[in-house]
């Protein structure tokens, strides 16, 4: 599925990192002592969806049967448990301050020391992001030692699907190489503990954002792809060293548009041939040309072995433009390899296989039979399921020639017979979660709004939703999700879509129908939406992905007609009063003012002012079952509460930072709902619960379960005290329960 608009992953994470820490005086005060006690033991698990994000690399260990690793662009790294047939997440311990390290730029294993694993981590290489790091493990990722770098890495930048930029030197296990985007080639001689520039590497640091795009060993020689050349004599794009000291450009290398950027490489030890895939851009998007070439390393002879050249036309006359991405050799069969196309939208991406060194090829898609029953969101109603898109991660099991896996923008597929394919995704969850609802009644305890794959209705937390993505219409990324408090069968959603941007449900989110009409701006800026407690009024705010805001609109006929609400603060998130259907609220973070409506959203007036302002990371939440009981998570400025519909707010002194807040079932004997928040009561940003209206808090996550950026949404279950659902930006939906 192609997302209709750019993902908010970069924007969201960038905003979080770029904002400056400021102290804001309290507006009023509520005398709660800052107290955090040792919390109950919680068990944390993923609410199962199955993948949903871009798997950028897969690596089988060359000397251990059944051992493999996967990396993702924003959701960490995983180890394959062959006995349990599932993936184990490896870096969930990275916390709030290290959110930028959840994107994995590269990984490496040591063929002679099977327990050693190395990760180069860093999501963004932008100025507002922190520097990268190298994580080193002696126990296959169970525990880690970390070395912070002085350079930035880009696990979610263009080129993230290229090859591994990290390599254990084939001559010496203590020596590692790390290719960077802006700072050339780095070298470590103490197994990654310290790093220095490899000054003999001839390609120099630059600002383009690609740099060294892969490192691969061919016998005792190391090859490095350079993403900022074009193959000509003046700007080489492929280098090598035979001694680990001197580097030189590889002679005879291909050049031209189709071979501009080397993307991945694989070495056949039997035939002593190096296969390289190329594109005209680093990808995963924006590519229109590419090729595949092989180098006979003993003679220096290059041969083009491109399966199908881009640039033709499809049966409907569309231009068949694409590049090549993944490449992997069969360790058991000389001359046998697979390569993948990438960014081939007209005819669809595929994996080609050759058994004769690339002289002839077979497209595995032509005979593929897919079973996506375990992850129904991958079935989009086509006569034949898509083979996938953005195929750059590609691997062949060194112990089983017919065991092939490849990553896509949404999952990881595998086969054991080169014909029947199914997701190999258990345990790997990478969705970027935007909204969460836990209904008070009904079949599902959870409805989620996600980046890239719309809205999900979770009948069970331990299996991918049987209905898959919400349809009629299909959204890419969800931007709004709301339920009528007094009429929970009524749910509305908004998002990026090509066939409408808003929908409603009369059965609690199981099935949907599009709004009969929508404002013109909805197509370009579908923002958050709210429904009154009785479902009689809809209030829709409009925010373009670039941050531009527009006037909100209101409907009283289930979306059949809409009228502008000029007094609503542009860009704000509408919040419905859960007890009074005539009341709505909105927080204007530009000027720190609470706005309220008492006429069903027709007009809004300013109430409390002088509240924290200046950044969009504010969450206004209404306490369930109460009218006018509002809570404001004000980021580094803490937590505020109003009990008079926003006329006044008092600061809650029990925490100094609050990023998001939600409610769940009250504890036995308590007269107020349980409150859950991501915030800081002392020094650490964590997940907390309060059973006494925020007087005291208990931390309910632990150091092993932190998941980086978790400030988007949190909600408790209104039917089960203690159960909480947490949105992460790359590790899916986490849910915790006391044990």
From TrEMBL:
Keyword Signal among UniProt keywords: yes
Residue ranges of coiled coil: none
Q: Which GO terms describe its molecular function?
A: hydrolase activity, acting on glycosyl bonds
The GO biological-process annotations, alphabetized, read as: polysaccharide catabolic process; xyloglucan metabolic process
Q: Which residues form the signal peptide?
A: 1-33
Write out the entry's keywords from A to Z. Answer: Carbohydrate metabolism, Glycosidase, Hydrolase, Polysaccharide degradation, Signal
The reply on keyword Hydrolase is yes
Question: Record's Gene3D superfamilies?
Answer: YVTN repeat-like/Quinoprotein amine dehydrogenase
Q: What PROSITE patterns is this protein classified in?
A: TAT
CDD domains cross-referenced by the UniProt entry: Sialidase_non-viral (cd15482)
Question: What family, per the record?
Answer: Belongs to the glycosyl hydrolase 74 family.
Protein name (database record): Carbohydrate-binding protein
Native source organism of the sequence: Streptomyces avermitilis
The lineage is: Bacteria, Bacillati, Actinomycetota, Actinomycetes, Kitasatosporales
């Amino acid at each position: 599925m192609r997302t209709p608009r750019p993902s908010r992953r970069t924007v969201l994470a960038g905003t979080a990192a770029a904002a400056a820490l400021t102290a804001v005086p309290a507006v009023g005060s509520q005398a709660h002592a800052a107290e955090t006690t040792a919390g109950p033991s919680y068990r944390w698990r993923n609410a199962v969806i199955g993948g949903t994000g871009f798997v950028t690399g897969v690596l089988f260990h060359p000397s251990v049967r059944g051992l493999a690793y996967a990396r993702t662009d924003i959701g960490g790294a995983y180890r394959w448990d062959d006995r349990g047939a599932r993936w184990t997440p490896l870096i969930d311990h990275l916390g709030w301050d290290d959110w930028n390290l959840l994107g994995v730029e590269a990984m490496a294993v040591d063929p002679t020391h099977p327990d050693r694993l190395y990760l180069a981590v860093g999501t963004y290489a932008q100025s507002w992001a922190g520097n990268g790091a190298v994580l080193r493990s002696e126990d296959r990722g169970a525990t880690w030692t970390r070395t912070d770098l002085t350079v930035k890495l880009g696990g979610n930048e263009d080129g993230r699907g290229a090859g591994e930029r990290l390599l254990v030197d084939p001559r010496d296990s203590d020596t590692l190489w790390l290719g960077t985007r802006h700072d050339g080639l780095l070298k470590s001689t103490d197994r990654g503990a310290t790093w220095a520039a490899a000054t003999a590497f001839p390609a120099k640091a630059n600002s383009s954002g690609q740099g060294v795009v892969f490192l691969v060993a061919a016998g005792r020689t190391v090859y490095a792809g350079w993403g900022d050349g074009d193959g000509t004599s003046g700007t080489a794009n492929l280098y090598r060293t035979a001694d680990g000291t001197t580097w030189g450009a590889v002679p005879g290398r291909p050049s031209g548009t189709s071979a501009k950027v080397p993307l991945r490489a694989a070495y056949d030890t039997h035939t002593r041939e190096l296969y390289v895939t190329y594109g005209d851009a680093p990808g995963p998007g924006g590519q229109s040309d590419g090729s595949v070439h092989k180098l006979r390393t003993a003679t220096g002879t290059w041969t083009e072995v491109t399966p199908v050249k881009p640039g033709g036309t499809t049966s409907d006359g569309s231009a068949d433009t694409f590049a090549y991405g993944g490449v992997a050799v069969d360790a058991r069969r000389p001359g046998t390899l697979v390569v993948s196309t990438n960014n081939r939208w007209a005819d669809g991406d595929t994996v080609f296989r050759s058994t004769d060194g690339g002289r002839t090829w077979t497209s595995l898609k032509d005979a593929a039979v897919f079973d996506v029953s375990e992850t129904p969101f991958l079935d989009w109603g086509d006569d034949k399921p898509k083979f996938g898109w953005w195929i750059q991660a590609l691997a062949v099991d060194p112990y089983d020639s017919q065991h092939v896996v490849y990553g896509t923008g949404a999952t990881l597929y595998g086969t054991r017979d080169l014909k029947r394919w199914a997701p190999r995704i258990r345990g790997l969850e990478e969705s970027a979660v935007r909204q969460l609802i836990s209904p008070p009644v009904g079949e599902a305890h959870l409805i989620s709004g996600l980046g890239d794959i719309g809205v999900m209705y979770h009948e069970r937390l331990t299996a991918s939703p049987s209905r898959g993505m919400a349809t009629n219409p299909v959204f890419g990324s969800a931007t709004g999700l709301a339920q009528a408090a007094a009429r929970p069968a009524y749910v509305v959603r908004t998002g990026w879509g090509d066939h409408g941007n808003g929908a409603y449900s009369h059965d609690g989110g199981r099935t949907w129908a599009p709004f009969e009409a929508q404002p013109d701006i909805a197509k370009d800026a579908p923002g958050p939406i709210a429904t009154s407690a009785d479902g009689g009024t809809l209030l829709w705010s409009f925010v373009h992905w670039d941050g531009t805001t527009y006037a909100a609109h209101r409907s009283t006929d289930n979306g059949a007609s809409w009228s502008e609400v000029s007094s609503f603060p542009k860009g704000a998130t509408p919040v419905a009063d859960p007890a009074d259907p005539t009341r709505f609220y909105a927080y204007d973070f530009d000027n720190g003012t609470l706005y309220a409506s008492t006429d069903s959203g027709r007009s809004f007036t300013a109430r409390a002012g002088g509240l924290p302002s200046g950044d969009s990371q504010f969450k206004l939440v209404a306490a369930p079952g109460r009218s006018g009981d509002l809570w404001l998570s004000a980021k580094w400025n803490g937590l505020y509460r109003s009990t008079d519909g926003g006329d006044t707010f008092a600061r809650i002194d029990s925490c100094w930072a609050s990023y998001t807040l939600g409610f769940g079932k009250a504890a036995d004997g308590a007269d107020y709902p349980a409150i859950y928040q991501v915030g800081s009561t002392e020094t650490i940003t964590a997940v907390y619960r309060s059973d006494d209206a925020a007087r005291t808090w208990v931390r309910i996550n632990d150091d092993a379960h932190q998941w980086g950026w978790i400030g988007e949404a949190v909600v408790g279950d209104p039917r089960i005290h203690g159960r909480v659902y947490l949105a992460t930006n790359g590790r899916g939906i986490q849910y915790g329960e006391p044990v």
